[in-house]
Amino acid sequence: MEPQRHDTIHQCSLTSVRILITGANGLLGQHLIQSRGQGTEILGIVRSKDSTGSGVEYETRELDLTQFSKVVRVLDAFAPEAIIHTAAEGRVDAVQKRIDEFRKLNVELPALLSKYAKDSGAQIVHLSSNAVFGGRTESYSDYSQFDPINDYGILKAEAEKSVMEQNASALVVRPILMYGWPQPSGRQNPVTSWISNLREVKKIRVVDDVWTEPLAAWDCAEAIWCALDTEMSGPLNVSGGVKMSLLEFAHAVASVFELDSSLIESGSSGDFPTLAPRPGSTSFDLKRLKKELDFHPLSPLEGLEKLRRDESAIAR
Ligand SMILES: NC(=O)c1ccc[n+]([C@@H]2O[C@H](COP(=O)([O-])OP(=O)(O)OC[C@H]3O[C@@H](n4cnc5c(N)ncnc54)[C@H](OP(=O)(O)O)[C@@H]3O)[C@@H](O)[C@H]2O)c1
Asked: What domain range includes position 223?
């Protein structure tokens, strides 16, 4: 039997370390900052300070990360002992057919940060994605061959190769469909957007032919802290460990948040011909996460229940 996880356990924490986090306003960036170890000194890179607002005190720097000379100046001044690179263009449909526009941000920048980390002796964590895999295989191990089926996945695969070529000590974390409360001005994720729509009694159409393993953003953050703690390197698959269709997941959201599931319409990927193709079914073999890190993520149902409790706690 697997060990039980509880809500607020923060098992791993780096202390007294200077950490630079890119994408600090993003979903994962915010969860990393909220769960940082005591005494860590964080510099969060944000595109705009206007959208900063986690309620947690930390230093931020406004920076367009495609301006590489400025990036290097910030790195030199802060001298991080660890870099966690979450920033990217993560909207799969925005990248599709515009691959060359996003190569600088999604590939050249992680390569630069990885080299900088190697030269300066810092640890680096680069955020990749399950999108490096096309869903053609029953289960993907940490070391499976890439077979992306959309432009976002192609760039993530190129980035992984470049990051590891520059620095064999780099850690490449591959999350899959993350959910969590974003900060007020942050990008919605499928779960929070389904909740908003169902609360407004709006119908939602959700596909039943895309299978995934939803991951709580706070678990991804904690897995990263654990991996940094153990100085893990190479690729690391991270997921919620339970495969379900998006339609099943939407029904789980309605059930946990006590919303009207009759508003959920079943669709298929063919109903959305303008969107980039998605892997039909992605399942991760979580060997490194569970065996090497002894990390056991919350199942999607447990995660949604925590999400609801967290919302009630914020509201009180
Ligand atoms: N969310 C998922 O389901 C998922 C799944 C697999 C992999 N990933 C990967 O995991 C990482 C974190 O995901 P996330 O959901 O936390 O992403 P997110 O919420 O979209 O956050 C990304 C952050 O990067 C910032 N950014 C983008 N371009 C920038 C630039 N040129 N200069 C400065 N900042 C810039 C964005 O700033 P603005 O807020 O100003 O746009 C945003 O705050 C990403 O690399 C993503 O590709 C995510």
From this structure: 18-178+217-239+282-297
